[in-house]
């Protein structure tokens, strides 16, 4: 059994069944992907930072039910000390190899929450020894490079429809 981390967008497509205009085909693609992971007997991990992003647009009165459903379906993991250690290592490694990242954050007053969230997701994945992060976020994919495999959902075949011959 392998552990696979999924990013927020995958959950929005597959669980909420929501997509921005032009992304509607991703809803079924994400649902097929989660089914595929289940059939392979792999475990899907959802880091707590992803849960926070996922719940951001959930009304207060639905929050507890949605969280319970996520915890029932997926392995929801906290951003704990071990994840923080891995995230710090990723941060140092990425900053050392990318001085423009440090300059970008300094110009932003070190407020770029997106980069911080991406690093936390990577740290969480590494702490749990996940084999892959599935995401369509180019920034997350780039930050994960050299630390853990990260990339978009694979193209999986759809179930072929059974076509019966017409009786003559």
Question: Would you mind describing this structure in some detail?
Answer:
This protein is an alpha/beta fold and 168 residues long. The chain has a single domain (3-151), classed as 5'-nuclease (Rossmann fold, 3-Layer(aba) Sandwich), CATH 3.40.50.1010. Helix content is 56%, strand content 11%. The chain is built from eight helices and five strands; from the N terminus they run βααβααβαααβαβ. It has helices at residues 8-16, 25-39, 48-55, 60-73, 81-97, 99-107, 113-127, 138-144, and strands at residues 3-6, 43-47, 75-77, 132-134, 149-151. It has a five-stranded parallel sheet, sandwiched between helices. α8 links the parallel β4 (132-134) and β5 (149-151). The mean pLDDT is 87.
- Domain unit count: 1
Q: What is the strand content?
A: 5-15%
Number of helices: 8
End-to-end separation in angstroms reads 49 Å
N-to-C order of helices and strands: EHHEHHEHHHEHE
Cα-based radius of gyration, to the nearest Å: 18 Å
| CATH architectural name | 3-Layer(aba) Sandwich
CATH superfamily assignment? 5'-nuclease
pLDDT averaged residue by residue: 87
Give the structure's gist in a few sentences.
With 168 residues, this protein is an alpha/beta fold. Helix content is 56%, strand content 11%.
């Amino acid at each position: 059994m392998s552990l696979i981390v999924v990013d927020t967008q995958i959950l929005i497509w597959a669980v909420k069944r929501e997509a921005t205009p032009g992304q509607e085909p991703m809803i079924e693609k994400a649902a097929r992907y989660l089914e595929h992971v289940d059939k392979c007997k792999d475990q899907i991990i959802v880091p707590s930072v992803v849960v926070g992003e996922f719940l951001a647009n959930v009304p207060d009165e639905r929050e507890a039910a949605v969280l319970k459903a996520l915890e029932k379906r997926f392995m929801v993991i906290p951003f704990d000390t071990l994840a923080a250690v891995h995230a710090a290592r990723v941060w140092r490694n990425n900053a050392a190899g990318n001085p423009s990242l440090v300059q970008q954050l300094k110009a932003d007053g070190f407020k770029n929450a997106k980069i911080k969230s991406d690093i936390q997701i990577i740290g969480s994945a590494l702490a749990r020894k996940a084999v892959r992060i599935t995401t369509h976020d180019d920034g997350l994919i780039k930050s994960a490079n050299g630390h853990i495999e990260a990339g978009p959902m694979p193209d999986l075949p759809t179930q072929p429809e059974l076509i019966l011959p017409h009786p003559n």
